[in-house]
Amino acid sequence: MKKFILAIAASSLIATPVLAAPGQAQHNAAYQERSTHSQSIQGKPSQNQSARKAEAPRKVAKAHQWKRGERFDRSKATNYRVITNPRAYKLKSAPKGYRWVQSGRDALLVRLSNNIISSVVTNAIR
After folding, report:
1. Bridging pattern class, strands 106-111 and 117-121
2. Interatomic CA distance for residues 72 and 61, integer angstroms
3. 44 alpha-carbon distance from chain centroid
């Protein structure tokens, strides 16, 4: 019985790649047909591509210019993160109740209680 089960397992391992080969050949033929078809179309721009070129260019959002006394809103900040090591950016450590945050390339000293900006250091992050 043990030999019978081993023989069936061995035959299934051998038969699996043989049975899968015809399907693989059909898949390769279909892939080659699609790639040659797409290469012949690439020379002409489609209607969608020409319509995209006719659209007005999109406006790029400018980085927010933060000012002292303004309320800090992290949704307006680009590349927002909390600066945990201010010494690495040549900044003094934040006083109690404040923290340094990054917005783009600027470092902002923000009060924790009401998110008012106390200090702005432009181009502090390189």
Report:
1. antiparallel
2. 18
3. 31
Q: How far apart are CA 86 and CA 119, in angstroms?
A: 13
Tokens, residue 18: 């043989």
Edge-to-edge strand ranges of the sheet holding 106-111: 81-82, 98-103, 106-111, 117-121
Q: Do residues 111 and 66 lie in contact, with contact meaning Cβ atoms separated by under 8 Å?
A: no
Q: 43 is written with which tokens?
A: 């020379």
Q: Compute the distance between CA of residue 95 and CA of residue 116 in angstroms, rounded to an integer.
A: 14
Residue with tokens 């693989």: 24
Say if residue 76's pLDDT is above 80.
yes
Phi and psi at 107, nearest 5°, equal: -110, 130
Q: Which of 88, 85, 96, 91 is nearest to 120 (CA)?
A: 91
Write down the pTM of the prediction. 0.51
